[in-house]
């Protein structure tokens, strides 16, 4: 199957099909100096998802491509000296409107995000930057968006407003018109002893007052009654979100990271990862990510970039 997708990954195939109907998104690929990251970018190019600009030391990149039989003939290359320089030059491509997405290569996440959030980067917006995993879990009816499991370590209530809004906007880009958002905690009752339950209740009221838009929120909800109709029924939870959630908002990075990796390594889920809230979508992959995950992340970035183009065009009309 295209992109190395395994049998039974029909939802990912639909995601790729949606993205391949769009023009390839011009993507600055930041320091793809290992075989996995370079091969992922080249495969996404082959599938028509991205139009890559490789940002890396030329000699190192060419030797890597030769050793691994990866064809980079004709792909544009911006020469850099090292990983920090690659990050700075990739961000400059966005600032100069020469790229509309970033893709992490073999550099550390902190190096890339440091260049993104730098004062003079031109990448910041009014929104808090946050990360979303899009998880395709075997046996679960629909993809799950988990946020934030990679960027915000201990987000405040104010941070979570943007984290939720970023996830809702992502769901819209994926074609989910009315995303159902579960604000997770260890329980479904509000108690001052568990601060995440207080924040969940506050976020829901903020959505009622129009401070968060485009989705239906409920919380606090425990994981079981957020995704299982049976669990919600047993606990007598009456809610349009309980048992049907599209988006899972975790209390902090540790909870989100463990949830996402548990689904990947214990349940066999495939995941795509993207950073939102910056001027362009950022494809944030891990060294342990499969080729399917890397291709899926590129497809998601393409859909997000396309929605942003449409929004910008509508604003000018």
What does this structure look like?
The protein is α/β, with parallel strands linked by helices and 317 residues long. The chain folds into two domains: 1-15 and 23-124, Isopropylmalate Dehydrogenase; 126-277, Isopropylmalate Dehydrogenase. It is built from eleven helices and eleven strands. It has helices at 10-20, 35-46, 58-67, 83-95, 109-117, 157-173, 195-208, 223-227, 229-234, 253-266, 291-316; strands spanning 25-30, 50-56, 77-79, 101-104, 130-136, 144-147, 180-184, 216-221, 247-249, 270-276, 282-283. Strands 3-2-1-4-11-10-5-6-9-7-8 form an eleven-stranded mixed β-sheet, with helices on both faces. α2 links the parallel β1 (25-30) and β2 (50-56). The chain is globular and about 60 Å long. The model is unreliable at 1-8 (pLDDT under 50).
CATH architecture of the largest domain: 3-Layer(aba) Sandwich
How big a fraction of the residues is strand?
15-25%
Calculate the mean pLDDT score and round it. Answer: 92
* Number of discrete domains: 2
Net shape: globular
User: Largest sheet, order of strands side by side?
Assistant: 3-2-1-4-11-10-5-6-9-7-8
Q: Can you tell me the residue ranges where pLDDT is under 50 for at least 5 consecutive residues?
A: 1-8
Query: In angstroms, what is the radius of gyration?
Result: 19 Å
Order of helices and strands: HEHEHEHEHEEHEHEHHEHEEH
| Class by alpha and beta content | alpha/beta
Cα separation of the termini: 41 Å
- Total number of beta strands: 11
CATH homologous group name of the largest domain: Isopropylmalate Dehydrogenase
């Amino acid at each position: 199957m295209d992109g190395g997708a395994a049998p039974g990954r029909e939802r990912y195939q639909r995601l790729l099909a949606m993205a391949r109907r769009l023009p390839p998104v011009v993507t600055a690929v930041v320091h793809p100096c290992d075989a996995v990251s370079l091969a992922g970018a080249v495969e996404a190019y082959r599938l028509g998802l991205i139009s890559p600009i490789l940002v890396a030391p030329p000699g190192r990149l060419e030797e890597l491509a030769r050793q691994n039989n990866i064809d980079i003939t004709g792909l544009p290359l911006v020469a850099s000296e090292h990983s920090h320089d690659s990050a700075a030059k990739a961000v400059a491509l966005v600032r100069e409107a020469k790229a509309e997405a970033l893709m992490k290569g073999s550099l550390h996440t902190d190096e890339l995000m440091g260049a993104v959030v730098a004062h003079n980067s031109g990448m910041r917006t009014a929104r808090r930057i946050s990360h979303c995993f899009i998880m395709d879990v075997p046996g679960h009816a629909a993809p799950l968006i988990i946020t934030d499991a990679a960027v915000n370590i201990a987000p405040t209530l104010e941070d979570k407003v943007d984290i939720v809004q970023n996830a809702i906007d992502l769901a819209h880009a994926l074609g989910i018109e009315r995303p159902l958002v579960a604000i997770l905690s260890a329980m479904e009752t509000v108690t001052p002893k568990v601060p995440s339950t207080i924040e969940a209740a506050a976020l829901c009221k903020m959505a009622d007052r129009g401070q968060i838009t485009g989705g239906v929120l409920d919380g606090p909800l425990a994981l079981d009654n957020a995704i299982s109709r049976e669990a919600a029924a047993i606990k007598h939870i009456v809610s349009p979100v309980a048992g049907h959630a599209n988006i899972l908002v975790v209390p902090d990075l540790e909870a989100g990271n463990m949830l996402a990796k548990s689904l990947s390594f214990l349940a066999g889920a495939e995941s795509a990862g993207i950073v939102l809230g910056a001027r362009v979508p950022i494809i944030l992959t891990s060294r342990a990510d499969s080729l399917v995950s890397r291709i899926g992340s590129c497809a998601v970035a393409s859909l997000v970039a396309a929605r942003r183009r449409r929004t910008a065009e509508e604003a000018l009309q």
